[in-house]
Q: What sequence folds into this?
């Protein structure tokens, strides 16, 4: 199970840190990441990280967002800086045994409940 938290209402240019806690004893063997869904739009990849530390970011968040994981605590984080209104969405933490599976929404096996992030202009 995945549980994300840390969302909220922030202003343009602010920072926010999302966290996700995973249950289970094999977290370190999973690829994990973040997807988001803006109102009226499809879910999109934000950032993913393999069990070995490979990282992929969506172009729109490169240089602003940083994904990290702590395998000792079964946690995943997304540090979001320089937030813009287009970042407004429900954010989901995700997981899968396969890193490549996380590249596309239909490949994701495990979804956490989302957390709302709203960026006002």
A:
């Amino acid at each position: 199970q995945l549980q994300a938290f840390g969302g909220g209402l922030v202003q343009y240019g602010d920072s926010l840190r999302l966290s996700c806690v995973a249950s289970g004893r094999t977290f370190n063997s999973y690829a994990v990441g973040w997807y988001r869904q803006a109102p009226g739009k499809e879910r999109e990849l934000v950032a993913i990280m393999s069990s070995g530390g490979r990282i992929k970011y969506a172009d729109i968040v490169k240089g602003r967002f940083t994904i990290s994981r702590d395998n000792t605590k079964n946690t995943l984080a997304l540090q979001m800086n320089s937030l813009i209104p287009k970042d407004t969405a429900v954010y989901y933490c995700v997981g899968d045994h396969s890193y490549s599976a996380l590249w596309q929404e239909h490949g994701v096996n495990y979804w956490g409940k989302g957390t709302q992030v709203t960026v006002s202009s």
User: Anything to note?
Assistant: The chain has a mean pLDDT of 95. DSSP finds no helices and eleven strands in the chain.
